[in-house]
Each structure stands twice: as structure tokens, then as C-alpha cells.
Amino acid sequence: MIELRNITKKFYQKTKAITALSDVTLTVPEGKIFGVIGASGAGKSTLIRCVNLLEKPTSGEVIVDGQNLINLSSKELAKARRHIGMIFQHFNLLSSRTVFENVAFSLELDHTPKQEIQKRVSDLLSLVGLDEKHHDYPVNLSGGQKQRVAIARTLASNPKVLLCDEATSALDPATTKSILALLKDINKRLNITILLITHEMDVVKDICDEVAVISEGQLIEQGAVSEIFSHP
Ligand code: ADP
Ligand code: ADP
């Protein structure tokens, strides 16, 4: 479902180039939850941002749902990105809009009929457990509730793939558990393939089917979670 082939990403600064990713190849099979774990500065964030081309790789191929995203026109890329959802550590909600309006936003941009928006947003808020919060503003929500809104928002455009950029790193352990359970539920019920990056071993052990370990821009190990973490 997601294939990164020989991805290298260099950042050029005045006098030097930083190699953030070095010849990274990985495949995330359809329907799986795939985790990439590594220390701060290892290249996780750069890697996940290459999947939807928020960062353009210096070289290599990015294939999502059978389509090579490299060299698409900006219009084609915008279309492909609609099927690639993303959630973030700090949620990135619109603070001047209610929960309902945050989730409705992309549907409104698409000129979806009003009644359809009403039903779809209500269903999504129900799915993420926020039936009672339609009219609240983000500032009045807990971290876990904000992440639930962000998840509902990204599901509004029917993604096939969900990218999770340290999605639980700002949350306490109990809330982390509940958000991971929600992600697992979404993965199973909606058959959405999930790629997540994290620096927390417990996140990987909790929900991932497969894992890759990244260090200094290179994938140093990759396999089933049970195999990778059974090493002494
Ligand atoms: P992680 O997410 O694992 O903490 P990052 O992908 O953020 O790692 O960073 C990997 C490396 O690339 C680091 O050395 C970081 O300083 C560097 N880097 C990331 N983004 C940029 C950028 N926009 N400009 C220059 N260097 C960057
Ligand atoms: P950081 O990790 O440095 O805190 P992010 O990578 O989370 O920042 O976000 C960078 C910016 O890109 C954000 O302002 C966000 O709104 C925007 N952005 C995030 N996701 C997407 C996406 N899927 N498509 C387009 N733009 C996005």
C-alpha cells in the first residue's frame, strides 16, 4: 500500500549537507499497522513527511496505493493526498472553529451538500466517541479529545492510508492507550493502512504488526514486532 524505494533526503545548509535519510526502502502492506521507531534526530519525521511529499525526497520513489507520487503535477498530487490522512503530535486543529466545523472543513471545501455534511460529521464524531462535543471549541477539550477530533477530521476525506506523526507523544499514558485503541479500531473496521512514527517502544508493542528501526537516517532492522523485540 505504501512503498518507499531507496529514499534519500538531504537538507542543504550554507556550508554543509545533512543527510536525514539514506537509501531507505520499506513496504507497508495493505491493512497493516506499521511502526517506525528511533531516537530523536534519527529521521522519523522526515520519513513520514516524505510519504505525502510534505518533504520531497532528494532521490527515490514514493508509491502509495499503486501510484508513484514523484513527478505528479501539483494538481494530481493534491488529489492523491486526499487519500492520505495525517495526524500530528500537536493536533493542528483550527482554534476559531468548533469541533463540528473542524471536521466539516474539508467537506465544505469540496462543496459537499449541507445535509450530507451534517450526517457524515455526526457519524464520524460518533465513531471517535465525541457525540456530546459538536459545539465545543478546541481550547475546551482535553488532549485526547483534540486528537479524536483530528482523527475524525482526517477520516472525513475517506483516506486509505493514515500517517501518524508522534500522535500520542503529547498525551498521558492512559489517554495514549485509548487513542491507540481507537487507531486499531479504525484500522480493522475501515481497513485503513496505518504508518506511524514514534520514539516510544510501548506504542509499537501495543498496536503495530510490523516495525522498522531507524538510526541516523538508515533503517537498521525491519520485521514483525514479535521477531524484532524478542531479541535478548
Ligand atoms: P526525528 O523525527 O527522528 O527526530 P527528523 O526527521 O526531524 O528526526 O530529523 C533528521 C535529521 O534531519 C536531523 O539531523 C535534523 O536536524 C535534520 N533536519 C530535519 N529537518 C530539517 C530541515 N528542514 N533543515 C535542516 N535539517 C533538518
Ligand atoms: P512540526 O512537526 O514541525 O510541528 P508539522 O509537520 O506537524 O510541523 O506540520 C507542518 C505544517 O504542515 C502544519 O502547519 C500543517 O498544518 C501542515 N500540514 C500538515 N499535514 C498536512 C497534510 N496532510 N497536507 C498538507 N499540509 C499539511
UniProtKB/TrEMBL annotation:
Keywords: Amino-acid transport, ATP-binding, Cell inner membrane, Cell membrane, Membrane, Nucleotide-binding, Translocase, Transport. Residues 2-232 form the ABC transporter domain. GO terms for cellular component: Gram-negative-bacterium-type cell wall. This is D-methionine transport system ATP-binding protein. The chain holds residues 1 to 232 of 343 of the full protein. One of its GO terms (molecular function) is ABC-type D-methionine transporter activity.
